[in-house]
Structure formats: structure tokens, C-alpha cells
Specification:
Elements: H1 3-15, H2 21-32, E1 51-52, E2 58-62, H3 70-73, H4 81-92, E3 113-117, H5 130-146, E4 152-156, H6 158-170, E5 186-189, E6 192-197, H7 202-205, H8 212-226
Parallel strand pairs: 2-3, 2-4, 4-6
Antiparallel strand pairs: 1-3, 5-6
Length: about 230
């Protein structure tokens, strides 16, 4: 089976997942009780697979889909404020074909980059439980096995940083002591470089904790490390 076919098979498995009863109930409830701004839309309401270039050298790891973002549109980071910041930065640094993504089929293509999440369902209050995190971990492990060209993992937030180390540990790569998360933190782990980046959440972007320049610096560094 080709790498693309293997990723497609994993995608189908992710979409069908019902391992976490709390997340299943929340994502489906959110898809039924829609935000007023999207009342006329059909929500995705299922888990979200990763997407991007199968030959990517940079993997972007987020936390989880937004209830009215990816859980609505069917693609991680698509249709929410965090995604607006992320895709604009990926476009400015040469990883994305356009600076925004609002829906599936909007023309967005990623080059040299693959975007995924630590948890594949929208969690209440954006806070997955440890068991929900661990239920999703095998999907990331398998993505890393299939995305054999990845050399850099950009971790958006401390949750993603922790999950990246767990995924690499599951692949037999361990580091002790584990480096602490920080914006711009860089840790060589096996054949990978982990890069820390503040999550482009409104809590960070509205307060100025994360700026466009800071986000661009991380992805510029990721490109340099992946070269």
C-alpha cells in the first residue's frame, strides 16, 4: 500500500472512532445545537484526521478541533480564529497555498507540511481528559510512522508538547529529563526536532502573548531545521 493510501486508510479509521463517550456526546451535541452564526450549516460532528503533504518534513501538532471550527467544517483549524492565524503564518512562510481556510474544498493545499491534532474530537472547554488524550495517541504514532519524511514537529502549546514526547516514546524514543515547553524551545529527540510555539488561541493572540512575527519566526525556524 502506498503512503497516500495508508494515510487515507488511517483517515477513515479516525473518522469512525467512538472510543471516548464524553467526546462523542459533546461533538454530536454541538453539531445539533449549532451556533447561531452557522445555523444553516451542516456540521461535521465527527473526529478529524490530519491533512497535508504526505512527504512533509514539518508536522504541526495542535490540541484538538474547535467546537464550531473543525467540528463544523470537517478539517482541523479550518473555520476558526486559531486557524486564521495558523494558515496565514503557513502561507507567509511558504507552507500553504493561500492565507486562509474557511471550509473543505476552498483550494487550500499544504506543501512540505502536515497538520494534525493531539485529540481528534472537540472537547468540552478545550480540555481533554488524560484518558481521552491516551485514546487518541495511537493515531499520532501511526501518522509519524507513515510520514517518514518528517524531521520537525511544531507543538502548538504545552499539551501538544507533552503529547509529542509521549508519541515518540511509544516509538521507542525517550528523553530524560524531558525538556520544558516554551515558545521557541527546541529539543532534538531521536531523528526529530521538536519546536515549541504558543498556541494561536484568542487568549494568546488577543493579549499579544503571541504575535504574527513570533509565529512566523517559529515556522521559518522549522523550515531551516527541516532542510
Amino acid at each position: 500500500m502506498s503512503r497516500r493510501d495508508s494515510l487515507a486508510a488511517l483517515e477513515r479509521e479516525v473518522i469512525a472512532c467512538r472510543r471516548c463517550p464524553r467526546l462523542v456526546a459533546w461533538r454530536e451535541r454541538t453539531a445539533r445545537i449549532k451556533r447561531a452564526a452557522y445555523a444553516g450549516e451542516d456540521y461535521w460532528g465527527r473526529p478529524l484526521p490530519g491533512f497535508g503533504d504526505p512527504r512533509a518534513r514539518v508536522l504541526v501538532l495542535g490540541l484538538a478541533p474547535a467546537a464550531h471550527g473543525g467540528n463544523r467544517t470537517g478539517r482541523i483549524f479550518t473555520g476558526d480564529r486559531s486557524g486564521d492565524w495558523l494558515f496565514a503564518a503557513l502561507w507567509r512562510t511558504g507552507f500553504a497555498s493561500q492565507p486562509e481556510s474557511t471550509r473543505l474544498g476552498d483550494g487550500l493545499k499544504l506543501s512540505g507540511c502536515y497538520v494534525t491534532a493531539a485529540v481528534r474530537c472537540a472537547p468540552p472547554q478545550n480540555k481533554p481528559s488524560p484518558s481521552e488524550r491516551d485514546n487518541c495517541l495511537p493515531y499520532l504514532v501511526r501518522e509519524l510512522e507513515l510520514l517518514r519524511s518528517v524531521r520537525v514537529i511544531v507543538c502548538l502549546g504545552s499539551f501538544a508538547w507533552e503529547v509529542a514526547f509521549r508519541a515518540l516514546s511509544a516509538r521507542g524514543v525517550t528523553v530524560r529529563p524531558r525538556p520544558r515547553f516554551g515558545h521557541g524551545a527546541c529539543a532534538p529527540v531521536g531523528g526529530y526536532q521538536l519546536l515549541g510555539c504558543y498556541h494561536p488561541s484568542q487568549q494568546n493572540t488577543f493579549t499579544g502573548r503571541l504575535t504574527e512575527a513570533m509565529l512566523d519566526e517559529v515556522f521559518t525556524r522549522a523550515r531551516e531545521l527541516a532542510a
